[in-house]
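Morning F.,

Quick status update on the modeling queue. The single chain you submitted on Monday has been processed. Sequence for confirmation:
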Amino acid sequence: MNAIAKQLAAIEKFRTMHSSGCFVLPNPWDVGTAVYLQHLGFQALATTSSGFAFTQGLPDTVTAITRDDMLAHIREVVAATPLPVNADFQTGYADSPEGVAANVTLCIATGVAGLSIEDATGNSAAPLYDDQLAVDRIQAARRAIDASGIPVVLTGRCEAWLVGKPDPLRVALERLVAYAEAGADCLYAPGVSEPDEIAAVVKAVAPKPVNVLVSTPNPALSVSRLAHLGVRRVSVGSALSRVAWGAFMRAARSIAETGSFDAFADAARFSELDDLFGNRRS
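Structure tokens below.
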């Protein structure tokens, strides 16, 4: 199967997954974690800009990780497994709709099955793109996808909660409805966590699917509960990478501060990892 055929098959599967039910879209941050998530039976993956940035010793900003570095990372994750991959493509690495369109075309060429475009500017004085510009950017991404002939799933993101906007639900509802009308296939407002607010988002953009981020412990947001609310897709953002960082930091701190190696008791077995990755090459 050539690269385009593989991509089209992944896209078809990814689109079908959005049509009914509720699925978890975990976020690996390198090839090894992508392979392990496939091993566990997950049916699709998503990159995490922050998880990748942390592996480079950098903060999660579009100025710290360049567009080309992100494209190379996305390409690696796509190549790691046959699963559909959704790219966390941040702002599209451009402010203008024309720039977003050009960069979306480059992202499609990595082999992704989907990609997301967010509306945060990175500027604390004006944290979200103006309403019309934000819509124009989604429309530009949609046109680029349509022109490519590769029907990747376009997710429109509203960052109202993450940037601390007053009345984030109102802002998110207005923007997500506009993004849906502009051509987004899936809608996403990271930070929404109250069941009634999630239900409001689902209702506002129906019948288009909604992604919800779960990145902290929340008994009210199990997969079954989110499915009951009508959520189609659940991602975890940087949470898995931060779990790994947490274990690493505790073990390293213990060695540095007490000279104890007791934390190694929780380490993954060498043979398990070696067999997992050895079988991949067999």
